[in-house]
Amino acid sequence: MKKFKAQISEYISHIKLFKKNARIYLYSGFLIGISFSGFRLLYNLFLKELNFSEEIMGKRLAIFSLGSLVIAIPATLSAKKNKFSTIYMISLAILFLSWLSQAFFTNLIPLFSASLIGGMFMTYYSVAVAPFIMRNSTDKERTHLFSFNFAIMLLSGVVGSIIAGFLPDICANFTDSKIETLRMSLVVISGVSLLAFLLIPKIKELNRVHEKDIRLADIFKIKNPLLLFKITLPAFIVGMGAGMIIPFMNLYFKDRIKLEINQIGIIFSITQLFMFLGILLGPPLAKKFGKIRTVVITQFLSIPFMLILAFFNQYFLVALAFFMRAAFMNMAQPLTTAFAMELVPKNEQEITNSTLMVAWTFSLAISTAIGGKLIATSGFTIPLIIASGLYVLSSMFYFLFFFKTEKITRVVECSGN
């Protein structure tokens, strides 16, 4: 018990080291996360009411990911030239308009166009986040800040999923149409993100030199292209696995487990809570075992729970499996980002983060389209099995590429203490 209290005390001491800029970003990210998670929970169900198939839903999600690819390189250049707060403010405004548009568009071309723009501007600010965190943290609290950033998004997901789960019941008091009920719910949950506009202007980057004269060719000057490839490949494979099934889990619980929207909202909120707790465990585990060993172990531990989702239909069993899979699999994400940022030179952090996001979103675009088609034709089991295999493959590459590198680094750090 004393050891546990000491670990909690140490964790809190690291959180107290977070700089003002970082704290403001976390607060604003929490508000945006509520909108994003709530919108994501409701939107496929909204499209289902409009009689769109899972294949169309998969294509929409693939187009969202395509937007990330379109803007990734310009976003990298912009991140070097402009203030983070400027990039963040512009992105949020256009994201809100994108969400609002998708709640009203019912024809495919404008709907897909709004989704494309949403993907572009979600990536536009996300590319700049990891370098921003690096600039606004020290070695002592950096791993905790990366993990806490991800944890805050998950915690906002708990709140967003709960709100989104009950919003249709509240909005049903104003209309008899299920489509209009869901549309009103989408508008309300999107509007929560606007509160972040009050916080973003308070972000002040003081000691940063903006590289106004940097050219597009300059950001591609990579000291070690093989290292960048090794960092990127496992992320690409994880994205392939995630796209197969994760965007469709709300439909999994609706169509296969036969749950109502408010029940799905509760399931998703509890899942986000499990992910939140898992993320908080990441830094202590990384400190003890190393980031890469923690990533490999936790990703492998998620596999049995993926297979339970594939082969069983019992409500409590699949709900528990969904919770545990999410906790183990997502524990790894902030650790891999922090590891990548520490591994590359400072002037390559933007392009490295951008490349990781491109790898993730490109693979997600491909596999979401495939996953949607598979689900529409054969159900959820095959995509879940394929996703499990891809997660195993990703873990193997992390181990092969970085186990020795991290082992040497940890020995050097220990010898210096």
- For this entry, what is the oligomeric state of its chains? single chain
Low-confidence parts lasting 5 or more residues at pLDDT below 50? 408-417
The rounded Rg comes to: 21 Å
Q: Briefly note the structural class of the backbone.
A: mainly alpha
CATH level 4 superfamily: MFS general substrate transporter like domains
Count of the domains? 1
The percent range for helix content is: over 70%
The largest sheet is: none
Count of DSSP-assigned helices: 15
**Shape from CA axes?**
globular
Number of DSSP strand runs: 0
Average pLDDT number? 84
CATH topology value? Growth Hormone, Chain: A
| Beta strand % | under 5%
Q: Alpha-carbon distance between the termini? A: 27 Å
Task: Give, in order, the helices and strands.
Answer: HHHHHHHHHHHHHHH
Secondary-structure arrangement, i.e. CATH architecture? Up-down Bundle
CATH C-level label: Mainly Alpha
Task: For this entry, give a set of tags.
Growth Hormone, Chain: A; mainly alpha; globular; 0% strand; 417 residues; disordered C terminus
